[in-house]
Design brief:
The complex is a heterodimer of chains A (about 270) and B (about 350). Chain A is mostly helical. Chain A is built from 14 helices and no strands. The radius of gyration of chain A is 23 Å and the shape is globular. Among the domains of chain B are: about 35 residues; about 80 residues, conserved putative lor/sdh protein from methanococcus maripaludis s2 fold (Beta Barrel); about 130 residues, OB fold (Dihydrolipoamide Acetyltransferase, E2P) (Beta Barrel). The chains are: A mainly alpha (about 270), B alpha+beta (about 350). At the A-B interface, helix 3, helix 4 and helix 14 of A face helix 1 and helix 2 of B.
């Protein structure tokens, strides 16, 4: 009896916590089906009252999606800006992290551990600390106000290297040795032997890297001045000020790519040992 | 997530990416299809034309005609009397000298004051630091310019009537039938100063129009007439002109008397005679207005949509209230802000304030 009560209480607590985490997303999705007039009336800022909390729409409408997809071509272009920035970062980051982690795990070379220790320190260092030297370097390279000013610094991730190194440590050396004796080269060993065993880690890295860079804000504000080159993560805050009527639909559309990537890799993500 | 759902996720992702890609690629065409298409018109200063069309008949003129002014006339001196025969250019009646000088000065001062205002507004316009300030100054400048032109015309007309000492001069040789003015009195606008023997061979017509048109029909102005004649067994219309010689206010309109001056006849055709039908078809021109727009641009008689452009060359419309000062069938003289911006004349869809539109040039 006591055990059952504890189980029920546990589940209740979990449901409540899950509910609290899901509430903002549920709120955003439900509000995205409100007509724009209802949104502007409910959330118009006023000195007299706070915004009205509105979960269920008074009138179900797809007007926000119609406005976002068909009447705001600028919004779609900003979406592609986000894709243009995020996809190269994720791909380059994964590639570099795979090679670096493989080197750190399966190769012996001078100062290997000291170098890896530096990577650990980089993990601890906040990104804003390196922002000024990064800015100076990008300015000297003439990459200011271009997407490369966002892609290049973010492509080199100490976190990715550390994450994949942890996965690759569990790949048995014997399998690599056996493959070497069979005549396999380094790249064959990496792509045929090691990578299939660290799929979970790569999936985790892709998801985390995608989400992190999809939501990039500070670097954009520092390196990009042309508003047409802004990704959606920054432009959404402007929409909140000028185009409140469609902001929820824009948020849902912004959320969809990250959600799809997570769902696709969720099995590997769950099975992975982090 | 089960592996079997992975293909579904891929399909959803592909569909999502395709939809967004197609919407982005065709966003221009979609905009073109969904956005309202408008045609524009520009207002400007000018006059309103009012068309008069009325049927009447040729009348025999009275034995004497009245000489009427459209301004109040304080009588200073009279040089003619009943039975006097005056030649063209002779002095007849004098505007009271002090009043004449005062009236002339007042009209001249008005012109000079408007010239100063115009200069001041021009300086303000050239030195304006913001687009909004420049727009506002330009609107006021154009209004003042219209007022200046009207004031100048009033002054010129006043001065043309009299000689330098305020005497009315005879416009032609005539015999004075009677003098209704007295020295020291004021003959008010529209009343006869004196009567002179009419040319009984003249052809005269009389027609009535509503008060607004009547105000525009000035004594001495020409109206166009059409004279129906039988020529070679067919009814033809011949154009001619008549000059308004008299106006009389009626209870619900204005009665104008005009003398037929000429008719463009062809060989063998005769001038109309007493009792013949005449069609008066003429346009009267109003005073100068600062801003005239097409009536189709005005909504609910109270607002128009002005078209603005942002830095990306996109066009937006904004509702601006207007006050109609005068109107005819197609145009209206209005009072509004942002007069120099183009207005929406027609739209393919209902417009909303602040909406983006496509302007068809």
């Amino acid at each position: 009896m006591k055990k059952r009560v504890i189980i029920v209480l546990k589940y209740m607590a979990l449901v409540i916590i899950a509910g609290l985490f899901l509430l903002p997303i549920l709120y955003m999705v439900m509000n995205s089906f409100m007509p724009t007039k209802e949104i502007t009336e409910a959330y118009a800022s006023s000195a007299d009252h706070y915004a009205n909390f509105h979960l269920i729409p008074d009138q179900f409408s797809l007007e926000q999606y119609y406005q976002a997809f068909l009447r705001r071509p600028q919004f779609l272009k900003l979406f592609w800006n986000s894709v243009l920035i995020t996809v190269p970062i994720v791909l380059i980051q994964c590639l570099i992290s795979i090679f670096a982690a493989f080197a750190f795990t399966k190769f012996e070379f001078p100062l290997r551990d000291a170098l890896f220790f530096i990577f650990i320190i980089l993990l601890i260092l906040p990104s804003w600390v390196t922002m000024v030297p990064n800015y100076m370097m990008i300015q000297k390279l003439g990459l200011m106000d271009t997407v490369w000013s966002l892609i290049l610094p973010s492509s080199f991730s100490a976190f990715g290297v550390c994450l994949l190194r942890q996965y690759m440590r569990y790949v048995p050396d014997e399998t690599i040795e056996a493959a070497r004796m069979e005549g396999a080269g380094i790249f064959k060993i990496l792509f045929r032997i090691v990578l299939p065993q660290v799929k979970g880690g790569i999936a985790s890295l892709m998801i985390l890297s995608f989400i992190d860079n999809w939501n990039m804000v500070e670097q954009v504000i520092v390196y990009i001045s042309d508003k047409d080159k802004y990704p959606l993560s920054v432009a959404l805050s402007e929409y909140a000020g000028t185009d409140t009527g469609i902001i929820f639909a824009c948020g849902v559309i912004f959320m969809i790519p990250a959600l799809l990537i997570f769902l696709y890799h969720s099995k590997e993500f769950k099975n992975a040992r982090v | 997530m089960k592996s079997s759902l992975k293909p579904t996720i891929i399909k959803i992702s592909i569909v999502f990416v395709l939809i967004v890609a197609l919407m982005t690629y065709f966003s221009g065409q979609i905009d073109n299809y969904l956005l309202p298409h408008v045609t524009k018109t520009l207002g400007g200063d000018g006059t309103l034309k009012y068309r008069l069309r009325v049927d009447t008949v040729v009348e025999q003129p009275p034995e004497s005609k009245a000489y009427v002014l459209t301004i109040d006339f304080p009588v200073g001196d009279i040089a003619v009397s009943e039975g006097t025969f005056v030649s063209k250019g002779e002095r007849m009646l004098q505007y009271e000298p002090q009043a004449f000088a005062k009236a002339k000065k007042a009209l001249n001062d008005n012109v000079k004051s408007l010239e100063k205002d115009q200069q001041k507004l021009y300086t303000e316009y050239t030195l304006a630091k913001t687009k909004l300030a420049a727009q506002s100054a330009l609107d006021k400048l154009m209004q003042t310019h219209a007022q200046l032109e009207a004031a100048q015309e009033t002054y010129d007309t006043f001065v043309a009537r009299f000689d330098s000492e305020g005497w009315i001069l005879a416009g032609k040789d005539m015999e004075i039938a009677s003098v209704s003015a007295e020295i020291g009195s004021t003959v008010y606008s529209g009343n006869a100063l004196f009567y002179y023997a009419a040319d009984t061979t003249a052809l005269q017509i009389r027609f009535t129009c509503d008060r607004s048109l009547g105000e525009l029909a000035m004594i001495g102005s020409e109206v166009t007439i059409q004279v129906p004649l039988i020529s070679n067994g067919e009814t033809v219309l011949r154009k001619g002109t008549a000059t308004i010689i008299e106006k009389k206010n009626l209870e619900n309109g204005v009665e104008c008397t005009a003398e037929i001056k000429n008719v463009r006849l062809q060989e063998g055709e005769k001038m109309p005679t007493y009792g013949d039908k005449i069609i008066v078809e003429t346009d009267f021109e109003s005073q100068q207005y600062g801003h005239i727009v097409m009536k189709s641009a005005i909504h609910d008689d109270s607002y128009v949509y002005v078209i603005t452009k942002d830095e990306d060359e996109k066009r937006y419309v904004y509702a601006v209230p207007v006050t109609i000062i005068a109107e005819n069938d197609f145009y209206a003289a209005v009072d509004m802000t942002a007069e120099s911006l183009p207005l929406v004349m027609t739209s393919s869809k209902e417009l909303e304030d602040g909406q983006r539109v496509i302007v068809d040039d």
